[in-house]
């Protein structure tokens, strides 16, 4: 594959053209339907943009800076990247514990309680 060719493409009468997002989604869902019996938690409808979002979130949760993720995704602004990058419960807990370290003699309510931390952060 040449760098100027699309990753997903169709070849019609010898001519290569980018595959439409709808066609890529159709293929993804076809294979997702085939494996859904073994993976019942797989979302009912998948779309190709989910791969992009999942990759961005994974990078963010593994410590890659938002600015770097923004470059990887080709965003012109990190504000766009912030839509993708959601913190994990562990990241939220670390942030809460760091903020709490300045308050003496107070025991955090979220310590060892993922559900409480998620509730405080508005996730549940």
Automatic annotation (TrEMBL):
<dbReference type="InterPro" id="IPR011010">
    <property type="entry name" value="DNA_brk_join_enz"/>
</dbReference>
<protein>
    <recommendedName>
        <fullName>Tyr recombinase domain-containing protein</fullName>
    </recommendedName>
</protein>
<dbReference type="GO" id="GO:0015074">
    <property type="term" value="P:DNA integration"/>
</dbReference>
<feature type="domain" description="Tyr recombinase">
    <location>
        <begin position="1"/>
        <end position="97"/>
    </location>
</feature>
<dbReference type="Pfam" id="PF00589">
    <property type="entry name" value="Phage_integrase"/>
</dbReference>
<dbReference type="InterPro" id="IPR002104">
    <property type="entry name" value="Integrase_catalytic"/>
</dbReference>
<dbReference type="InterPro" id="IPR050090">
    <property type="entry name" value="Tyrosine_recombinase_XerCD"/>
</dbReference>
<keyword id="KW-0233">DNA recombination</keyword>
<dbReference type="GO" id="GO:0003677">
    <property type="term" value="F:DNA binding"/>
</dbReference>
<dbReference type="GO" id="GO:0006310">
    <property type="term" value="P:DNA recombination"/>
</dbReference>
<dbReference type="InterPro" id="IPR013762">
    <property type="entry name" value="Integrase-like_cat_sf"/>
</dbReference>
């Amino acid at each position: 594959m040449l760098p100027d060719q699309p990753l997903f493409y169709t070849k019609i009468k010898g001519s290569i053209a980018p595959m439409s997002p709808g066609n890529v989604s159709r293929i993804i869902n076809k294979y997702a339907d085939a494996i859904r019996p073994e993976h019942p938690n797989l979302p009912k409808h998948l779309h190709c943009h989910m791969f992009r979002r999942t990759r961005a979130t994974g990078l963010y949760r593994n410590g890659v800076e938002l600015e770097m993720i923004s470059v990887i995704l080709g965003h012109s602004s990190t504000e766009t990247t912030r839509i993708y990058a959601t913190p994990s419960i562990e990241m939220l807990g670390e942030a809460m514990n760091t903020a709490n370290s300045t308050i003496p003699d107070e025991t955090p309510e979220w310590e060892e309680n993922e559900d409480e931390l998620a509730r405080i952060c508005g996730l549940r």
